[in-house]
Design a protein that fits this description.
79% of the residues lie in helices and 0% in strands. The protein has 234 residues and is mainly α. Helix 1 runs parallel beside helix 6 (195-213), helix 3 packs antiparallel against helix 4 (114-148) and helix 5 (161-190) packs antiparallel against helix 6 (195-213). The N and C termini lie far apart (55 Å).
């Protein structure tokens, strides 16, 4: 009887996670092998040139560089604040004595016992906490870049454009990972209403992310060759 109540949760929820994980593994493979076909590869390619351009004329472009990095920091701060606030709210719900499952018992599919309800909220809490962690680390790296990019260029200075590019790439990567974890919380939030919505939301999210992550293949040849060689050397 217990299996009949939770078999949809056991099948559909892990299947949705596997679908998302498989997509991101494939995306990572494309970024490493064909970077210029993805928005991640093109953005990373542009950031490398941006750091070099800012450092060559930092006396005139220091305000532009700091403002650009500040905008990135504000975005990460907003996501980190949202994640920790939602985590605090979920923690309050989990620790409260109020039962939220009774009004939904007759309207959702899948298991809705007390243990399953707690599992749903704990899964949501875990995802939001990891999202907060990634955004916090992203802010740390971006703050370092905003300070070091204004260092005067001196022959004895050890702050190079390669070092700043590496810091900026780490900050951008952590920001992207934090955003993806935040997106993954949306299907988990729908898990409260049943596992069918979780799988459908994961499938829809993969389709949306595919259209956002990949560029139209309007050009090949020398541009792709240069981009691939740069990523292989990283």
């Amino acid at each position: 009887m217990e299996w009949r109540k939770c078999y949809l949760d056991v099948i559909l929820v892990p299947l949705g996670f596997l679908l998302t994980i498989a997509y991101h593994l494939w995306l990572w493979h494309k970024v490493r092998t064909q970077p210029l076909t993805t928005t991640f590869g093109r953005n990373a390619h542009g950031r490398r040139f941006w750091v070099g351009a800012m450092m060559k004329d930092i006396d005139r472009k220091n305000i532009l560089a700091v403002q650009t990095l500040r905008n990135m920091i504000m975005g990460s701060t907003l996501m980190a604040t949202t994640s920790i606030l939602v985590s605090a709210g979920l923690g309050a719900v989990i620790s409260s004595t109020y039962s939220v499952k009774k009004p939904l018992n007759d309207t959702i599919y899948g298991a809705h016992g007390e243990f399953m309800v707690v599992l749903k909220y704990v899964a949501l809490l875990t995802v939001f906490l990891f999202s907060f962690f990634c955004h916090s680390l992203s802010i740390r790296f971006l703050n370092q870049v905003s300070i070091l990019i204004c260092v005067p260029q001196d022959p004895m200075c050890i702050v190079t454009s390669e070092h700043l590019t590496e810091l900026l790439e780490k900050g951008s990567l952590l920001n992207s990972v934090g955003n993806r974890l935040f997106y993954a919380a949306i299907p988990l939030l729908l898990w409260i209403f049943g596992p069918v919505l979780v799988f459908l939301c994961f499938a829809a999210m993969v389709l949306v992310l595919y259209n956002l992550d990949f560029m139209c293949k309007y050009g090949k040849g020398k541009e792709d060759e240069i981009g691939n060689r740069e990523f292989i050397n990283v």
